[in-house]
Write a structure and sequence with these properties.
The protein is α/β, with parallel strands linked by helices and about 450 residues long. It folds into 2 domains: about 150 residues, Aspartate Aminotransferase, domain 1 (Alpha-Beta Complex); about 260 residues, Aspartate Aminotransferase, domain 2. Helix content is about 35%, strand content about 15%. A hairpin with a 4-residue loop joins strand 2 and strand 3. The termini are far apart. About 45% of the residues are buried. One of its GO terms (molecular function) is (S)-3-amino-2-methylpropionate transaminase activity.
């Protein structure tokens, strides 16, 4: 029996009524991929208020690596609710905060002494990592990368490299933030090898220190080991290790933003492990809490201790509920083999996607790491012109068939897969069958002739 059960079109009658209320009382700024409202979630399945059950290949934008409503996490939170909900760690401390810090120090890369600090969201984690880096180095400049995404606050928006919808008319932006080139091998200059492209970009960074901002005024470089919103773009080991060497050469801190890539998504606990690079600081959130708001900055003890008491913190940062959820998430990943499961899912996705690439001219590229895999759609493979409109049509058609998908990329022409790692083999194949049927329907149509 199929797991997807569609009883109405989307939005259904109940969803339409609730949409009218939403339009009256909710600001229009937050974007909504699915025009319906959740009623119940379980693993990789999400049921709306009209009784439609979807396969969720979006995972709340990579927040649900351990799935919707995992039993172990739910029970841990219920147990905590019976003790206390919140005391504010700045007022009276609690053991779950310390226990989670211990766990993150254990599982993050590097054998050096580490400490952790907790916040509410990924953007807050990035903000605080920058504050810590500036305090430790005494420098102000921060370098991020083309197509990188780090959040929607003033500072993180300044570091983000996509104007619409993230930055348009929201300036002026935070000073002393700079952006440099990042490898995008599918769109590298014609006639250039990947290795040549890496060398060119690293040399451009060296030149940047001469032309834009001196290295001794740069506190940190922040990079996603795999770009998330940017389209699941994976840099080479050569590039990442070269970047780390440049940071070490000039005393610049290396910050790995693992907010979307962390917690088994890429086939290792953290993506940076696959590049042979040990970061000075890491930012974590999303799947850390299985849907509860929690984020972390983890790093070398001497760097993390640079701010004095009261210089970082927040009322809800590291809430007891988020901490106990996160501790259980780590146990689930380790005890249930979700790192290995991510590798298996990635193999299935990549094999299937590459077979489609052979059939459909509009699939320009297939790329990713572990189960973090994307398809890039183009109008043709010669020009590689991005096809944002086709991508939107595919996502909309899949949704009507019960499959939830997300786009990504600077051009909005990629479909990214962030399926919960607890998905069964049968559910995974069912979702891929739906996507293949949509591609067959939409990409098999005769070319439209303009008059």
């Amino acid at each position: 029996m199929p797991h997807i059960q569609m009883k109405t079109s989307i939005p259904g009658p109940k969803a339409q009524a609730l949409l009218r209320r939403k339009e009256q009382f909710v600001a229009r700024g937050p974007f909504n991929t699915v025009l319906s409202f959740a009623e119940h979630g379980e693993g990789a399945l999400l049921t709306d208020i009209d009784g439609n059950t979807f396969l969720d290949f979006a995972g709340a934008i990579g927040t649900l690596n351990v799935g919707h409503r995992p039993t172990r996490v739910v029970q841990a939170v219920k147990n905590q609710l019976d003790k206390y909900i919140h005391t504010c760690f700045n007022v009276m401390m609690y053991e779950p905060y310390v226990a989670l810090a211990e766990e993150l120090a254990r599982i993050t890369p590097g054998n050096h002494a580490k400490k952790a600090f907790f916040a509410n969201s990924g953007a807050e984690a990035v903000e605080n990592a920058i504050k810590i880096a500036r305090k430790y180095t005494g420098r102000k400049g921060i370098i991020s990368f083309e197509r990188g995404y780090h959040g929607r606050t003033l500072l993180t928006m300044s570091l983000t490299s996509k104007v619409k919808p993230y930055k348009y008319q929201f300036g002026p932006f935070a000073p002393e933030t700079f952006r440099v080139g990042h490898p995008y091998y599918y769109r590298k200059p014609e006639g250039m090898t990947d290795e040549q492209f890496d060398r060119e970009l690293l040399q451009q960074l060296e030149t940047f220190f001469l032309s834009e901002a001196p290295a001794d005024e740069i506190a940190a470089v922040i990079i996603e080991p795999v770009q998330g919103e940017g389209g699941f773009i994976v840099p080479s080991v050569t590039f990442m290790q070269g970047l780390k060497r440049i940071c070490e050469k000039y005393g610049i801190l290396f910050i790995a933003d693992e907010i979307q890539t962390g917690f088994a998504r890429t086939g290792s606990m953290f993506a940076i492990e696959q590049f042979g690079v040990v970061p000075d600081l890491m930012t974590l959130s999303k799947s850390l809490g299985a849907g509860l708001p929690i984020a972390a900055v983890v790093g070398r003890s001497e760097i993390m201790d640079a701010p004095g008491p009261g210089e970082i913190g927040g009322t809800y940062g590291g809430s007891p509920l988020g901490c106990v959820a996160a501790i259980e998430v780590i146990k689930m990943i380790e005890e249930e083999g979700l790192v290995e499961r991510s590798q298996q899912i990635g193999q299935v996705l990549t094999t299937r996607f590459r077979s489609w690439q052979q059939r459909f001219e509009q699939i320009g590229d297939v790329r990713g790491l572990g189960s973090m895999v994307a398809l890039e759609f183009v109008k043709d493979r010669i020009s590689k012109e991005p096809d944002k409109e086709l991508t939107a049509k595919i996502i909309a058609a899949a949704q009507q068939k019960g499959l939830i998908l997300l786009n990504a990329g600077l051009y909005g022409n990629c479909i990214r897969i962030l399926v919960p790692l607890v998905i069964t083999d049968e559910q995974l194949e069912e979702g891929l069958d739906v996507l293949e049927s949509v591609l067959t329907e939409l990409l098999s149509q005769p070319a439209k002739i303009e008059n």
